[in-house]
Specification:
The protein starts with a strand and ends with a strand. It has a 20-stranded mixed β-sheet that branches. It is built from five helices and 25 strands. It is mainly β and 367 residues long. The protein has two domains: 82-201, Diaminopimelate Epimerase, Chain A, domain 1 (Roll), CATH 3.10.310.10; 208-349, Diaminopimelate Epimerase, Chain A, domain 1 (Roll), CATH 3.10.310. The chain has helices at 70-75, 110-117, 156-169, 265-273, 311-323; strands at residues 2-3, 5-6, 19-20, 27-30, 48-50, 53-55, 60-61, 82-90, 93-99, 127-133, 140-146, 176-177, 180-182, 185-191, 197-200, 226-230, 233-241, 245-252, 283-291, 294-301, 305-306, 330-335, 338-344, 351-355, 358-366. It is found in: Plastid, Chloroplast. It catalyses: (2S,6S)-2,6-diaminopimelate = meso-2,6-diaminopimelate. GO terms for molecular function: diaminopimelate epimerase activity. Belongs to the diaminopimelate epimerase family.
Length: 367
């Protein structure tokens, strides 16, 4: 697969660059702009190759505004062998969104998703999300492939991105909600007037065998502030499922107050993910408490590694903090990519997550 790029990016994010190339099979990117900045020019070196992927040398880089109305016309394109996509991010947790409404089979295979998500030889993303036909009366179905090709049950930041993507596909404006079938059950995101997305994430699953974890329950049928031995340290962990498994820790028996910025996540994260106590592997959240309504977390995601944000993880963190008596039921959770508002509602036992989802660019790639 040969790739070159012509990118147009928002004026508000100068870090994003745009490339143009004379390659016959380019990835083309475009993104909404209201003003045209001065052109930036760049000369690329020789192309780099990897299996089924080639990054072709580009002759220049420029930033420009696409033609008026181009997003709608872009999403309407139907070309054989070409995948049109929109890249979104939720607090830096980024995804390739695919309009898959005309079929119940993903248009991208897990192996192709791995290549597309590669940040050096592909588009670059934490996962590929498919907007698919709804089932059992729902508006849509969400499926997602992680950057390693695995398929999680759900993704909190991803569902917010999917809601904004669906609104664009439907050309709808203002406040709007959707019912979405996921591997974690029914999820209902609602786009707010300010553009943020509030998501009813449903009820947390606390029963140890359903998380799942092999750690023995120590509070009713749940695992709360239990001991997990890892690398010679005894970590205190609480295990929760938001439709996908989470292991939340606020520290070890020797260090009850984590300084999350000091953690070597690349070293410790995989050891939690693949620990024998988690038969389906696990997402892991490391949490620092600033106050009963203000938490800070870093996350190692199952199948994606360290990411800038994890919506289901932020929900699990607030549940764990409440169960351990550390926080109130509504908190601001700081993630590396920004804050999320999380509420564990006492009346209906549902968790509500509110946060942003933004377009990065529009693109197309030959498959």
């Amino acid at each position: 697969m040969a790739i070159a790029a012509a990118i147009t990016v928002p004026l508000t994010t100068p870090r994003r660059r745009s490339l143009s190339s004379t390659s016959a099979n380019p990835i083309r990117f475009s993104s909404p702009l209201t003003a045209r900045p001065k052109n930036l020019k760049f000369t690329a070196g020789r192309g780099t190759q990897c299996p089924n992927f080639r990054i072709c040398a580009a002759s220049s880089m420029r930033i420009k505004a696409p033609e008026k109305g181009s997003p709608d016309s872009f999403l309407d394109r139907k070309e054989s062998g070409i995948l049109h996509f929109v890249k979104y991010h939720g607090l830096g947790n980024d995804f390739i969104l695919v309009d898959n409404r005309d079929t119940t089979e993903p248009k991208v295979s897990p192996d192709q998703a791995v290549k597309l998500c590669d940040r050096n030889f592909g588009i670059g993303a934490d996962g590929v999300i498919f907007a698919m036909p709804g089932v059992n009366g729902t508006d849509y179905t969400m499926r997602i492939f992680n950057s390693d090709g695995s398929e999680p049950e759900m993704c909190g930041n991803g569902i917010r991105c999917l809601a904004k993507f669906i609104a664009e596909l439907e050309n709808s404006r203002g406040k709007r909600s959707f019912t979405i079938h996921t591997g974690a059950g029914l999820i209902v995101p609602e786009i707010q007037e300010d553009g943020k997305v509030r998501v009813d994430m449903g009820e947390p699953i606390l029963k140890a065998s359903d998380v799942p974890t092999k750690l023995p329950p120590n509070k009713d049928q749940s695992v709360v502030k239990a001991r997990l031995d890892l690398d010679g340290s005894a970590w205190n962990v609480t295990c929760i499922s938001m439709g996908n498994p989470h292991c939340v820790t606020f520290g070890t028996s020797q260090n009850q107050d984590l300084q999350v910025d000091e953690l070597n996540l690349a070293d410790i994260g995989p050891k939690f993910e693949h620990h024998v106590m988690f038969p389906a592997r696990t997402n892991t959240e490391f949490v620092q408490v600033f106050s009963p309504t203000h938490l800070k977390m870093r996350v190692w995601e199952r199948g994606a590694g360290a990411t800038l944000a994890c919506g289901t993880g932020a929900c699990a963190v607030v549940v764990a903090a409440v169960l351990e008596g550390r926080a109130a039921r509504r908190c601001t959770v700081d993630l590396p990519g920004g804050p999320l508002d999380i509420e564990w509602n006492e009346k209906d036992n549902h968790i509500y997550m509110t946060g942003p989802a933004e377009v990065v660019f529009y693109g197309s790639v030959p498959l």
